[in-house]
Amino acid sequence: MVDQHFDAIDAEYCLAEGGGPGRLAGQYTSANISTTEKEPRAVEIIAHGPAGHGSVPRQSNVVAHLTKSVAKIVDWTPQLRVNETDRHLFPQARGVGAARGGESATAMCSTRIPKSPRPAADWMLENEPEHWSMLHTSVVPTILTAGYRYNVIPSEAKATLDVRLHPDEDQTKFLDQLRAVINDSERRGPLGARPLPSGRRLAPQHRALRRD
To answer: Which of 24, 27, 36, 66 is deepest in the core (most CB within 10 A)?
Structure first.
């Protein structure tokens, strides 16, 4: 539909998930709408190596190899991105923070992001992660697969990441950044990142990238 009949679905707006009113103590505090949407991608990180018996430790253990890479990804913070929606949202949301009886992420970031973006983003990640996610591409490990018996060293280990690409994110460049973060200098086996088909594409310019 997107590739061949986009004119048939090119609507001005769409009623879907992602919006809705905010309430506190039974009172409406905000009405949220979505002006754009992240692009979901499942990315696999795969490590290969020699199998063996669990009684003999191996430096080439693929489970250890994979988990080190996953830890690097979890510790990495993708670039903070502020688009047109965010620039309008944060200044207008100061009243929301007051209604909640304190300083909310949307209220504090309207003044702090331009001057100190990383501390402001760290505050959001700790206190209001849903707003942090609005300003970043998010990467969350959700599935780990390896082995079939406790005493057998597997020859393959795989991690699946739930990646939600920010609307301004370039998928090709992002995957290159992900590989750089992993920085697999040992190269005992092919450890790489590849995206899986998302099952949906949100706009004609979005394309799936396959790298094995």
So the answer is: 66
Does residue 106 contact residue 99 with C-beta atoms inside 8 Å? Answer: no
Contact criterion met (CB below 8 Å) for 86 and 105: no
Residue 166: predicted pLDDT? 93
> CA-CA distance, 212 to 71, in Å (whole number)?
22
d(CA 138, CA 129): 10
On the 0-12 / 13-18 / 19+ scale of CB atoms within 10 A, 104 is: buried
Q: How confident is the model at residue 177 (pLDDT cuts 50, 70, 90)?
A: very high
164 beta partners: 40, 138
CA distance linking residue 62 with residue 184, whole number of Å:
12
Instruction: Say how far apart CA 136 and CA 152 lie, in whole Å.
Output: 39
Residue with tokens 């905000």: 30
Question: pTM for the complete prediction?
Answer: 0.72
Is the model more confident about 36 or about 161?
Answer: 161
Residue 85 vs residues 119, 125, 168, 202: alpha-carbon distances, Å = 21, 19, 12, 18
**Other CB atoms within 10 Å distance of the CB of residue 143:** 11
